[in-house]
Amino acid sequence: MAPREIYNVVKLVPKPGKFNEVVAAFNAFSQHIRDHEHGTHVYLALRPTDKDELILVEKYADGDSLKAHMATSQFKQFSRAVGPCLAQAPEIRSASFVGGLEGRSKL
Question: Which PROSITE patterns match (predicted)?
């Protein structure tokens, strides 16, 4: 059986005045992912138009790639950096792809 891709959607709600700090930590961590985590296929943040929140969209090649992502010292550093900046615990929802356009990458 082929490896099963893993999708997560994560909602981060920063405390008032902490949005930019959370974004900066996310961007620094994203650079590490881009350079070192080849099993992480999508890792992006969206900001709803009417809120200072972040919606993270993640796609991993398989469960081992997700485990490897969460085991890195950079993930732990990111978690420590944003934890005190959040108004509530992150809301994490696992999902599965059901259709649509995933991307047009030519990699």
Answer: ABM
Residue 39 is part of a domain; what is its CATH number?
3.30.70.100
Tell me if 39 is assigned to some domain: yes
Confidence of residue 106 (pLDDT cuts 50, 70, 90): low
pTM summary value: 0.90
Residue 105 lies in a domain: no
**CA-CA distance, 33 to 93, in Å (whole number)?**
20
Tell me the residue range of the domain where 44 lies.
Answer: 15-95
CA–CA dist 94, 73 (Å, integer): 23
Structural domain total, the chain: 1
For 54-65, give one letter per residue: b (16+ CB within 10 A) or e: bebebbbbeeeb
Q: Given this model, what pLDDT does residue 107 score?
A: 47
